[in-house]
Specification:
Elements lengths: L7 E7 L4 E7 L1 H11 L3 H19 L7 E8 L5 E7 L3 E6 L16 H5 L3 E8 L5 E7 L5 H12 L4 E10 L2 E13 L5 H12 L2 H7 L4 H7 L7 E8 L1 E2 L5 H10 L2 H10 L3 E4 L6 E4 L1 H15 L4
Parallel strand pairs: 5-11
Antiparallel strand pairs: 1-2, 1-10, 2-9, 3-4, 3-6, 4-5, 6-7, 8-9, 12-13
Helix pairs in contact: 1-2, 9-10
The chain binds zinc ion.
Zinc ion binds next to loops.
Length: 304
């Protein structure tokens, strides 16, 4: 199966059972993240799952302009993940240890669960704008992101949810297809419909659909949301995108404070910064660093 040409999010509604449906296709963004961070295959697969989870969490927010931060702490070799995603369709993130690779043979699963380990937590910060911020946290229990995210929705948001985050390797490309599905009960909706979708997802429905190159509508049908009842509300592009810039890098240097800047200049003679989220590198050469120090000195000693 060839890779999809675009990353996108499909939002749907199934009125007969009162269910919200989301399908996210994020293959290109996951590969871009892997390449930016130089991830080995297992780290790349776990980061891909995390990015998919973050983008789905953002998609499920009710607000127009809102963001989520998904943080996963764990005792496994991955060390943890941090994902930032917004309702504008942007997502970015990093994994603490990008070098995890469990070789279980060609074509074998990349075992992202083993990279998580046995203990840890999933923490979600929802920033709905205007200072409206909510935090929720659950302990890792299944140590499988899809299952633990379902528990997060159940315990922190009290919403019946089915989640599947899928990384389907292909010949020569460990991130052959990266996609996720989130099914949620609307207020007054049918719990059994979500439970049924969950069972089908656990049985491999998403992976089979992806292998067959199915559209979101066909995937929803596989999960029991069939016929005229499915209403597609939106089909929008999503992408791995970072908000870092040279300006922000310079501001970060200024934020170090005068003392730190002076010792940086004395010891290193220049400043080199790398963005944690996308790996972009920013270089502030000696003369410019000196200029920043002068400007900061003038600001701090107006009488001089
Ligand atoms: Zn960046």
């Amino acid at each position: 199966m060839s890779a999809p040409l675009r990353d996108h999010l499909v939002r749907g509604l199934f009125a007969p059972t009162g269910s919200r449906l989301f399908a996210l296709f994020a293959t290109l963004g996951a590969r871009q993240a892997r390449d930016s961070h130089g991830c080995a295959p297992t780290s790349a697969a776990l980061l891909a799952q995390g990015l998919t989870a973050g983008a789905l969490l953002a998609a499920a927010l009710e607000k127009k302009l809102a963001r989520i931060n998904l943080q996963i702490g764990c005792d496994g070799p991955a060390g943890g993940l941090f994902i930032d995603a917004g309702t504008d369709g942007s997502f970015r993130g990093y994994i603490k240890n990008p070098q995890v690779y469990f070789t279980s043979g060609p074509g074998e699963p990349l075992a992202p669960e083993r990279a998580l380990g046995r203990k840890g937590y999933v923490s979600v910060l929802r920033d709905l704008g205007g200072g409206e911020i909510y935090r929720g946290m659950v302990e890792l229990e299944a140590c499988e992101l899809s299952r633990d995210l379902e528990r997060y929705f159940q315990s922190s948001e009290q919403v019946e949810t089915a989640v599947q985050l899928s990384v389907l390797p292909e010949e020569g490309e460990p991130l052959g297809q990266v996609a996720g599905v989130l099914i949620q009960r609307l207020p007054g909706g049918d719990e059994a419909a979500v439970a049924r979708a969950r069972e089908l997802l656990r049985g491999g429905a998403l992976e089979r659909g992806l292998a067959a190159g199915e559209t979101a509508t066909a995937l929803f049908e596989r999960l029991g949301f069939e016929g005229d009842g499915v209403e597609i509300l939106a089909d929008v592009p999503v992408e791995f995108r970072c908000s870092c810039s040279r300006d922000r890098a310079v501001r970060a240097i200024l934020a170090m404070g005068l003392e730190e800047m002076r010792s940086l200049f004395a010891e290193v003679g220049e400043a080199k910064l790398a963005c944690q989220f996308c790996g972009a590198k920013y270089h502030v050469a000696g003369p410019e660093l000196l200029e920043l120090i002068r400007a900061a000195t003038d600001d701090s000693d107006p009488g001089d």
